[in-house]
């Protein structure tokens, strides 16, 4: 077989089981693709030795007929996941040289399912960003380009490295994490599938925390079936994470029938934003029609507190981040600034954190510190918590009224140029999350499915939002949409 | 109820240069939960381990680590709340208290600001003079202890020991109901006693397992009563918080100093700054810990890593049903059932182990006699050698045996003391020792009579004198005791002497 790295998880799995290829061959194909894709800057730590060792072990298990579900499938892991003995820096200088002595629950579960880790993937520093430009390694680059334009585009963020790597066939799939859209936005920007499961589905243990009440891990894959396969391996109850749900994990793949007849799909009128590109509006309309044609009932719905979601998110997420990032103080691990004669502990903190954190991280730590401070807590943080409750209730109300899933655009635009937002107000960048943050605030599952190309030939995605804990049903709706949209485009290889 | 018999003590008054002043004191006591493992990590809490050996990834705040509540610690907090007759909150929650310090690896302490696990309760503090203060408990919450910074090992470096990081503390917050240094010491002693009875904290102040932040303010006589009527703090003076006290003696000295310092400021027309202060026992003074500019803004907010803590009433009921008898009840019962004095009952119930020891000795025996022996002989002897009741060489069974020998007239009280010494130093069964060493007192009236007859026969003049002056009978008693080597039963001798001399 040729081009093994271009296979989906399901294709590779079936080929392995039929003995048509080996995990070592798949892994070597991916490693070669990674070697040839330096220009994409997707992988920031490569682990070929670990990969080949695991691939050999996987082949042995496949031969012995004792192969778990993802046995032998090569994947990439976002740098936010702690991986034992392998650099895990959250793309931050402050974690320079940090190699954890433990493995995150999710990456361990993937390893237990037989998956082969190829290396660590680029991202925005501490998952804070929508363009990958806050990474200490420099940004990853989108394998897609506009028409004949050579300008480098963002792969989105924060899971931009994961998105670029999957879209460019450097790995069969990758892990991402999503705090405000960090799986769904980059997936949409590179034309792949990404699902953020219900908050509590995947253990957060061993994933560097950004905003604990919003963070969720999820798969980024070449199609919906792969998302189902990989999500099953990633999720499940973890007693080490108090917010992890003690619920059985269904066979998500088995739920992909494509039959959505009678399902009620809500179209929220508040997501029709002023100034939204016509192409996005048109795509949304097409998606709606596709689902209707597949037998779903389309219903106009209202999520009245939507307009407060972005400001609410940008209070809560920085507040939690300011506290979560306090541990990076130069005392125990990671970067510590060189001190001058007479410097004390305060100088050590200040210099270490000034050198170790990039501007966006510093901005969010400062915003978070401000909104939690005495005298402002009630006006900002406490109010944001109350609004969050209202946003959650908006969704509960429409689900209670019989809506099964909600269809929205995934992003307000296609991938933009790297550096294009450099001088923009940070709020411009934050607007990227406008369709995705509500889902995190409400703790719901949301999936981004590639649905078409814009005039410049860039992929656009649609988002489906589901009921809590019903990822199987949500993925099935996404599967129906994927079938109808028939998105098969691939970026032309230029790297 | 027992406490109805107590009167309220008078508040301590300090005479200033211009007026008299009263003290108002509230305490925040940090009690380390007697648990093998920390509050949110599986690491050990053993005292005295090598620095940084009891540290898990969670305690060291490694990236991506998450706290998981230790159910045993929750149970101890509930138990403590029940022991302080406090309301238990079935739903509580954890908050982060944010500040930077090297011995606080997370950069925040997980505590319970907004919804503590235990609400209002009370402690009855007896002052030993028949008065007792009822101190209201405002709340008890669980929180993580910090590690230890060591600044004096190297001129250029500081060291950090994280063994203590994350150990579960209960912060027991009182209302400002304590009215003097002695009451403050008595309050913490009573709290310690209750905690030890409950087994929720070992009360070891030297190791820092029980320590207090003491809030002190002063007011003019009458002002406190206004506060009590209205619960309006503006009737009271500005308070200062003396941090981290772990000695009852120093607590008293620090309060005394702090009150006088505040009086001097106010009488000179100044204002007391609300601040935290440290007590320096060498100089016997309190000093300001940090200026206002350095004051922390802790930015408390609900810890998103932990779900609200919900417990069930049935579980609380089970814990309540398993509570031991508490000091006040035990003391009342000792007074009632064993006929003890208030003082003896207090001494015996001070430590749960002493009370248990006493009860085993007193079971089926004369309570007062048992109390005498435990307090006067046993405690006295233990104290002499710096032992305590838990490592007493004399077991309750042995001491009971000695008391039985006295009660059955087998030995006299005097011989019993010799016997006690033998049991204390050599061990053994008291009855056997008495038998083997011939210590049994002679109750055989025949033998006593024979000895007495001899003495009467040999001392006719004394007999005549005694008949005129019965007090001289004692001489005959003494002679008989001498003749029998002290083993004659004194009562039998007395009776016989009286009969023979016709007294």
Describe it for me?
- Chain A: Residues 26-475 form the Amidase domain.
- With 495 residues, chain A is of the alpha/beta class.
- Chain A has one domain (1-494): Amidase signature (AS) domain (Amidase signature (AS) enzymes, Alpha-Beta Complex), CATH 3.90.1300.10.
- Chain A contains 15 helices and 11 strands.
- In chain A, helix 2 (23-35) runs antiparallel to helix 3 (48-64), helix 7 runs antiparallel to helix 15 (471-485) and helix 9 (309-324) packs across helix 12.
- Chain A starts with 8 loop residues before the first helix and ends in a 10-residue tail after the last helix.
- In chain A, 60% of the residues are buried.
- By secondary structure, chain B is an alpha+beta fold.
- Chain B has helices at 71-83, 181-198, 223-230, 248-267, 313-321, 327-338, 342-349, 352-362, 367-384, 396-407, 413-426, 430-436, 445-458, 460-468, 473-483, 490-500, and strands spanning 13-15, 20-32, 91-92, 95-98, 108-111, 121-126, 132-144, 148-150, 159-161, 168-174, 210-219, 240-245, 276-280, 285-288, 301-302, 309-310.
- In chain B, strands 1, 2, 6, 7, 10, 11, 12, 13 and 14 form a 9-stranded mixed sheet that branches. In chain B, strands 5-4-15 form a 3-stranded antiparallel sheet, with no helix packed on it. In chain B, strands 3-16 form a two-stranded antiparallel ribbon.
- In chain B, a hairpin with a 4-residue loop joins strand 1 (13-15) and strand 2.
- Chain A binds chain B through residues 81-82, 88, 90, 95, 98, 100-102, 104, 204-209, 211-213, 239-243, 319-320, 322-323, 325-327, 329, 331-333, 345, 349, 369, 372-374, 377, 381, and chain B through 57, 60-69, 96, 98, 100-102, 105-108, 158, 160, 297, 299-301, 304-307.
State the end-to-end distance of chain B.
Answer: 51 Å
Shape of chain B: elongated
Strand content of chain B: 15-25%
Biggest beta-sheet profile of chain B: 9 strands, mixed
If helices are DSSP runs of H or I spanning 4 or more residues, what is the number of helices of chain B?
16
Subunit structure (chain A): Heterotrimer of A, B and C subunits.
Catalytic activity (chain A): L-glutamyl-tRNA(Gln) + L-glutamine + ATP + H2O = L-glutaminyl-tRNA(Gln) + L-glutamate + ADP + phosphate + H(+)
Domain Amidase (chain A): 26-475
Pfam families (chain A): Amidase (PF01425)
């Amino acid at each position: 077989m040729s081009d093994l790295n271009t296979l989906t998880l399901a294709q590779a799995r079936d080929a392995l089981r039929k003995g048509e290829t080996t995990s070592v061959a798949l892994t070597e194909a991916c490693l070669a693709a990674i070697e040839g894709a330096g220009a994409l800057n997707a992988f920031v730590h490569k682990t070929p030795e670990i990969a080949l060792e695991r691939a050999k072990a996987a082949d042995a298990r496949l031969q012995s007929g004792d192969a778990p579900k993802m046995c032998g499938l090569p994947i990439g892991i976002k740098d936010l996941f702690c991986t034992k003995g392998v650099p895990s820096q959250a793309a931050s200088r402050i974690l320079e040289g940090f190699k954890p002595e433990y493995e995150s629950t999710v990456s361990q579960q993937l390893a237990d399912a037989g998956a082969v880790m190829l290396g660590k993937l680029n991202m925005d520093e501490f998952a804070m960003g929508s363009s990958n430009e806050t990474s200490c390694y420099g940004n990853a680059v989108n394998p897609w380009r506009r028409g004949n334009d050579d300008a480098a585009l963002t792969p989105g963020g924060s899971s931009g490295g994961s998105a670029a790597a999957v879209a460019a066939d450097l790995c069969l799939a990758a892990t991402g994490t999503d705090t405000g859209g960090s799986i769904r936005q980059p997936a949409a920007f590179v034309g792949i599938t990404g699902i953020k499961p219900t908050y509590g589905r995947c253990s957060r243990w061993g994933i560097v925390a950004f905003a604990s009440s919003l963070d969720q891990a999820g798969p980024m894959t070449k199609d919906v079936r792969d998302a189902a396969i990989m999500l099953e391996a990633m999720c499940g109850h973890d007693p080490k994470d108090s917010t992890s749900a003690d619920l059985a994990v269904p066979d998500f793949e088995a739920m992909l029938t494509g039959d959505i007849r009678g399902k009620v799909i809500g179209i929220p009128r508040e997501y029709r934003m002023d100034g939204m590109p016509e192409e996005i509006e048109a795509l949304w309309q097409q998606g709606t029609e596709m689902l209707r044609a597949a037998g779903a009932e389309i219903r106009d719905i209202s999520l009245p507190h939507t307009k407060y979601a972005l400001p609410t998110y940008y209070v809560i997420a920085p507040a939690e981040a300011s506290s979560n990032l306090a541990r990076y103080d130069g005392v125990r691990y990671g970067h510590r600034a060189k001190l001058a004669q007479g410097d004390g502990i305060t100088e050590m903190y200040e210099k270490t954190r000034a050198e170790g954190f990039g501007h966006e991280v510093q901005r969010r730590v400062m915003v978070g510190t401000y909104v939690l401070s005495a005298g402002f807590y009630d006006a900002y943080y406490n109010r944001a918590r109350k609004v969050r409750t209202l946003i959650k209730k908006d969704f509960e109300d429409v689900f209670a009224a019989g809506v099964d899933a909600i269809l929205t655009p995934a992003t307000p635009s296609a991938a933009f140029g790297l550096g294009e937002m450099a001088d923009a107000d940070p709020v411009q960048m934050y607007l990227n999350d406008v369709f995705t943050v509500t889902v995190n605030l409400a703790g719901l599952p949301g999936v981004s499915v590639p649905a078409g190309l814009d005039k410049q030939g860039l992929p656009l995605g649609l988002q489906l939002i589901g009921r809590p804990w019903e990822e199987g049903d949500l993925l099935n709706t996404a599967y129906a949409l994927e079938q109808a949209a028939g998105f098969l485009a691939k970026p032309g290889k230029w790297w | 109820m027992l406490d109805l018999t107590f009167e309220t003590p008078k508040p301590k008054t300090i005479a200033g240069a211009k007026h008299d002043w009263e003290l108002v004191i509230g305490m925040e006591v940090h009690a380390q939960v007697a648990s093998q493992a920390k509050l949110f990590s599986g690491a050990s809490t053993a005292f005295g381990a090598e620095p940084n050996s009891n540290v898990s990834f969670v305690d060291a705040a490694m990236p991506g680590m998450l706290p998981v509540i230790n159910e045993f610690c929750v149970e101890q907090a509930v138990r403590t709340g029940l022991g302080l007759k406090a309301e238990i909150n079935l739903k509580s929650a954890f908050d982060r208290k944010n500040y930077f310090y090297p011995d606080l690896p997370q950069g925040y302490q997980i505590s319970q600001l907004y919804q503590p696990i235990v609400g209002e309760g009370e402690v009855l503090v007896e002052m030993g003079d028949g008065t007792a203060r009822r101190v209201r408990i405002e709340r008890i919450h669980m929180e993580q202890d910090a590690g230890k910074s060591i600044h004096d090992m190297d001129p250029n470096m500081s060291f950090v020991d994280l063994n203590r990081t994350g150990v579960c503390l209960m912060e027991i917050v009182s209302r400002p109901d304590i009215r003097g240094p002695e009451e403050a010491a008595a309050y913490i002693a009573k709290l310690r006693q209750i905690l030890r009875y409950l087994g929720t904290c070992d009360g070891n102040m030297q190791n820092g397992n029980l320590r207090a932040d003491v809030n002190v303010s002063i007011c003019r006589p009458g002002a406190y009563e206004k506060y009590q009527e209205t619960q309006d703090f503006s009737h009271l003076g500005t308070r200062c918080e003396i941090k981290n006290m772990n000695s009852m003696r120093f607590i008293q000295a620090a309060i005394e100093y702090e009150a006088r310092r505040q009086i001097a400021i106010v009488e000179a027309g100044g204002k007391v700054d609300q601040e935290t202060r440290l007590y320096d026992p060498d100089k016997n003074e309190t000093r300001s810990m940090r200026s206002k500019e350095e004051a922390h803004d802790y930015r408390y907010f609900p810890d998103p890593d932990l779900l609200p803590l919900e417990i069930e009433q049935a579980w609380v009921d089970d814990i309540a049903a398993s509570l031991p008898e508490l000091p006040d009840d035990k003391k009342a019962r000792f007074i009632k059932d064993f006929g003890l004095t208030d003082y003896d009952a207090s001494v015996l119930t001070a430590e749960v182990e002493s009370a248990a020891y006493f009860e085993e000795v007193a079971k089926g025996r004369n309570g007062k006699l048992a109390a005498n022996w435990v307090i006067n002989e046993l405690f006295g002897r233990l104290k002499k050698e710096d032992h305590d009741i838990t490592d007493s060489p004399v077991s309750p069974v042995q001491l009971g045996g000695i008391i039985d020998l006295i009660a059955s007239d087998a030995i006299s009280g005097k011989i019993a003391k010799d016997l006690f010494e033998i049991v204390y130093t050599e061990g053994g069964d008291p009855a056997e020792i008495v038998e083997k060493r011939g210590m049994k007192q002679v109750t055989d009236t025949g033998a006593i009579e024979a000895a007495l007859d001899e003495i009467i026969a040999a001392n006719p003049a004394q007999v005549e004198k005694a008949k005129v002056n019965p007090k001289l009978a004692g001489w005959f008693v003494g002679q008989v005791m001498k003749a029998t080597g002290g083993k004659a039963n004194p009562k039998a001798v007395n009776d016989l002497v009286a009969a023979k001399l016709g007294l």
